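[job 4417] fold queue: 2 targets
>>> target A
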Amino acid sequence: MTITQLNYVLAIAEHKNFTKAAEKCFVTQPTLSTQIQKLEDELDILIFDRSKKPIELTDVGRKIVHQAKNIVDESERIQDIVDQQKGFIGGEFKLGIIPTIMPTLLPMFLKAFIKKYPKVKLKIEELTTEEIIARINEGHLDAAIAATPLHLDTVKERVLYYEPFVGYIPNDHRLFSKKKLDTSDLDIEDILLLEDGHCFRDGVINLCKTFKKHTDDQFQLESGSFETLIKLSNEGLGMTLLPYLHTIELNDKQKDKLRHFTDPSPAREVSIIYHKNELKMQIIDSLHSVISGIIRGAIAFQNVNIISPLSK
C-alpha cells in the first residue's frame, strides 16, 4: 500500500469517475486503474462498485476513504515540519474567509502578501463559519479569517483587528437626526438583517437586547449582501448596521446616512483561526503580520465593546 495509491482512491471517490480522477492526478487512466486494482487485491476487498454509474464506494470503501484522508493529510505534514525547521515560507496554503469579511479585507492585503511572499500559493475560499470550523477540524483548511471568539477546544484564535458596527440610517428614519447612536436606540423590528447563517446577523441580534420572535404580521426583510441592505434602506424600508470596512468606499451621499455609536462602540473581533495542531505557523505568522499592518491604517478605533458572533 502506498500514499500514491491512497491519493488515487481519494480522487476517484471525489470525481466518481476513473478518467476524471486520472486527469486530476496527472496519470493515464490505465495507470490509475492498475494501481487501484493492486490495492484491492492486496486488501482482498472491493473499494469501488464499478457496476454503478457513476461509480460508488462500497461499504468498506467508505471506511477506507475516511482513513485514507487522515493518512494523506498526515503524510503532507512531514513537509510542513521540514519547512518550519528551515524557516521556509512557501508552498500551498488553504485559507477560508467568511462572506462578510472577504469583499473588503481580501483586496486590502492580497497584493501586498503575494508580493512579500511569492513562494506561498494561497488557495482562498469563501465559506461560512460553520463550514470553516468543519474543514479546519477535518484538515481541509490550514487557516481561516472569521469573527470571534468561537470558544472551540480544537481551534486557536489570533486577533487581527476590531471592526466597529456603523448605523446606516435613511433620511425619513426616527434616528436620522441623531449625530451618534446608542445601543439602546436600536429596535430589531426596523433593522434590515443579513440572511440566516451569517455570523454578522447573529452579532446584530445579540446587540439588540429587545430582540423577540415576530408574532404579528409585520414583514421582516433579509438579504445575502450588505449592498442589497443599503439599497433597501435607501427605499425607506428600515435602517441597517454595517461593518466599518464596508463603509469606507461608500459615496458621499451614502456616507451622510452613516451614524457611529457612542463609546464603547459595538464591534466584532476578527481573527485568523487554525487547528491547535497546525504546523504551517510560519505562513500564519506572515498573514497575521501583513493583515495587521495594513488594517492599522484603516481602523483607528480602540474603545470598543466586542459583540459575540455566536447565535444565542
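>>> target B
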Amino acid sequence: MLNSFATSLPANVRAVGGELSSPQYSRVTIAPSQGPRLLDQLRERIRFLHYSLRTEEAYVYWCKAFICFHDKRHPKDLGGAEVEAFLSWLANERKVSASTHRQALSALLFLYGKVLDLNLPWLQAIGRPQVQRRLPVVLSREELAALFRHLSGEHLLFARLLYGTGLRLSEGLQLRVKDIDFSHQAIVVREGKGGKDRIVMLPQALVAGLRAQLARARDIWLADQAAGLGGVELPHALERKYPRAGASWAWFWLFPQATHSVDPRSGVVRRHHIYDQTFQRAFKKASLQAGIIKPATPHTLRHCFATHLLQGGSDIRTVQELLGHADVSTTMIYTHVLRMGGWAVRSPLDQL
C-alpha cells in the first residue's frame, strides 16, 4: 500500500530514485539550518522510543508525502490548515480507508509533537476518523484442510503453527530456538504486539515437525559458524551487553532465511528469519489452488484459531490471554462469528 501510494500523488509530485520528489524541485532535500536532516531526526526519535521498524517506515513515508504535497515546504512553516488539506485529499481524492487515514494522521502528530516539539492548539482539534470494526474472515475446518494440502515443507509447518497457536505472522517469524519449550509443551512469544510477552500452547501435532525444523536450522547455524558468518540480530542493547549471544544456538531463528541479508538499520550483513512476503505469496497460491473464495490471508489463521477455540467451548478469557489482547472487547468480535451459519439460531425458513 505504501509503495503504490507514491504513484498516485498529484501531478506535481512523483517518486524519484525511491524518494518523493517534485519536478520543479527535483532532488531537493529538506534540511534544517543546523543539525541533522528532518527525516533523520524523525528516525532517531522513533528509535529512541523503541517503535518497530514497520512503524518507522510508515511514519517516514507519510511525512515525506506530506512535505511533497505542499511543494517541499518545511513542516515548521505549515499549520493545521495544511495538515487538514493533506488528510482531506487522502480521504476524498485517494479514498483511503479509515485505518490508513489514522496512520497518516498519527505520523504527522508524531512529527509535530515529538520531533519538532511544537505543542500547537490545532494538534488536538484535528478530527480522528472512526475505524469501523469488521467481522474477521474465518475458514472452516474443511477449507483449512484443503489449504494445508497445497502447502509443503517449511510453509506447511509454519501455516499449521499459526493456526495451532494463534500467533501473528510477525510473532511466528521472530521465534528463536530458545522460545520452544518441549518439556512444558509451551511456546514463549517475546515482545509481541505492544511489546508484551506471553505463553501459548505447543500443539502435540507440531512436535515432530518442529524438531525436524530445529535440525534443519541447526545445520544452517553450524555452516555459518564454520564460515565465520555466525550472528543474528538481538533486541535492543543485548548485543552490547552479551556480545557473543548473537552467535549462539539459543538465539538463532527457528525459521532462518536461506541466504544472508543486510540489516536495514545497522547495515550489518547477517542471517535473518524468512521474509513475510515469501510466506504470504505461498499462502495466496495455496488458497487459490484450494478453491477458497474468501479473502484469506495468513492473519486469517489467527482468526480461525480463536473462533474454533470458542466453538469448542473454551472460555473467552482464556482465548484473550492466548491471543495477547489487552481488552476482552477485542476478543468479543469472534463471538459474532459464532452467531452465523450452523452455530446460530435456526432460520424460520428451515422450519417450514
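[job 4417] complete. Note on B: The longest strand covers residues 256-262.
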